[in-house]
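Run folding on both entries below.
>entry_1
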Amino acid sequence: MPGHFGTRWARLNGPARISGVDLARGLAVLGMFAAHLLVTAESWVWSEPGTWLAIVDGRSSILFATLAGVSIGLVTGGRTPLGPEQMNVARGRLAMRAGVLWVLGILLILTGVPVYVILPAYAILFLIVLPLTGLKAGPVLWTAAVLGIVMPFIQPLLDRLPIWQGPFALELDAAIGWHYPFTVWVAFVLAGLGIARAGVTRLSVQIRMLAIGAALAAIGYGLAELSPPAMNEYWLAVWTSEPHSAGIWEVIGSGGFVIAVLALCLLMCRIPMLKAVTLPLRATGAMPLTAYVMQLLVWTAIAVWVLNDTGNLFGFRELDPFWPLTLGTIIGCTLWALLIGRGPLEWALERTSRIVRSAPSQVGRLDE
């Protein structure tokens, strides 16, 4: 047993693991739990502590998207993109994962739990980014910046397309995760890919991430406060930092915010004491798919048993499920990581992706 435990401990804490990325994933998981299960203020205001919980709205899912880009970057070579043969294998496996995630997302939507399931959007974003995985840090980051600035001006026009007034608009919205529109959110995934290509484990990169992320957050949220109050519908949709708006100030402000959060997580895990203290959150972040899916499945089971209605959001929140679900997830993930190893869904996803045969030199895993 000591050898077994030691192996699991080394996997979670060893030098091959980027602990700061796991910590950031863990925070994103808890943030999405809070966004789903708690009532938050309409907007987050620094000077009003009563609104601080609203920090989870929108930003948790953007952090997830950015971390997806980091993971894609790591499994496709890290600082140096893989060679053609290995890259084809890595892309094939990522495409396979995208397909599984999309199906899993649709199944979760069919439970009727009243949340915007992120997995279909996640899957589409994987596929969009694949052609750009051969690029180095500079081109990827510039592409992310251009899309992040340009697409918020186009998004309101896409939201008005006649297809959204058709008979199957709601089904299409759910199937492609339009609450997280890939047309804008691809900028977050590319930012994460660019960070991985720049060298996410390098101290100089982490410090620059913190500085640039904080500056972008200050610019985005600051300019949102200065936006003129009287505007037409189009400009209201563009000049906003509201969560899930895909407005330009949300892209800049919240995009910068999550980059700064990731940098802080990476820097914290350089300090042994802080790294040790954050073990439960890191264990949760090591199996984010399992944590996310299990939360929704437990929600479904409780809602059916107690309320006889999975779609009753207010009734479910009145049961005060946040702390039991959150603590149960953290404890469960920690015990699983230390006693068993990889998360069950992460293991299954990895095994499924291995249908795409390996090149002579193995490519990495998505949760590394």
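>entry_2
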Amino acid sequence: MVGGNPVSASALLRKLARKYKKTAPNFARAIVDVLRAGPVRAATPTVATSQPLDSETRLPLIREEHPVVLVNEPILDGAVESVLRQIVDEHRSRQRLLEAGLAPTRTALLVGAPGVGKTLAARWIARELDLPLLVLDLSSVMSSFLGRTGVNVRRVLDYARSVPAVLLLDELDAVAKRRDDTTEIGELKRLVTVLLQEIDSWPDGALLLAATNHADLLDPAVWRRFDIVLDFPMPDHRAMEAGVKAFLDEPEADGDVVALIARLYDGENLSRLERDVFRARRAATMSGTSSVDALVNMAKDRFARLPTSVRGPAAARLLETTDLSQRAVHELTGVSRDTLRKYSASTSGGTDAK
């Protein structure tokens, strides 16, 4: 092992495999076989064989999920999805990379506002690789006894190194704060240093993901520790429409109404949309009505924020394509019946008598 550093050791082995690929192919192949057999790890006095527990509470320090089952596929920005697929492909094609003197991505930092799909992306990667997902919520292991927090973090990282898995460090900013933050005590700053060293020495062949909602709080040294830094943007209108279709699970839903619902959620995240859609579906199931109608009814306050020029045509479209009465559409959207008549290509003959 080079200086006790598994990353340096792996790099040296890959270099040797590449150097002797033509002149000593059997030797090069043997090196690749060693690398392929598992991550090259630092020597440690003990190897964690069972899930780590807090020394005081005896509660699990991580959530372990396997097999990973997704109710809905991630709806992601195209550039983000492309990078995630490359990470998966690299780990599936590990031998090919090793023979070229390369290694798959070891570490990635997922950055973005709450609800934009960071945790879902980590779950998707674990599912695609058929590996357990180990989640360490750093905000939950923070202890008033910071020395214990450091021990807990080390226990989790030692365990994650000892098993084939994808490790997700959630809420990274809870620990890896700026070390020039004068409000933080010295023990926390030392913990940041330890965490950075652990990320630096993460072994080849293993995959460590970290997620943060508050990139501005991270210590500047954190950024360069990761092989990949991936920004998750807020969903655009295309993503919102895809979300409405996926969460509603109604193939016959009118496209214009789907687009309208997506418009009502502009500026929101997909998690909020998903919660509302499933609440609407539960309400519709209990009342025997349409999920679309139930969702539209839930969005009353959102219609009030639409520009007047958009609200009228949108209200008329609802009248034409849903089971809502003219009175219901008026009460829901705030659009007068005269305006509805103006914009609507057809009006219901007896529905406005309610």
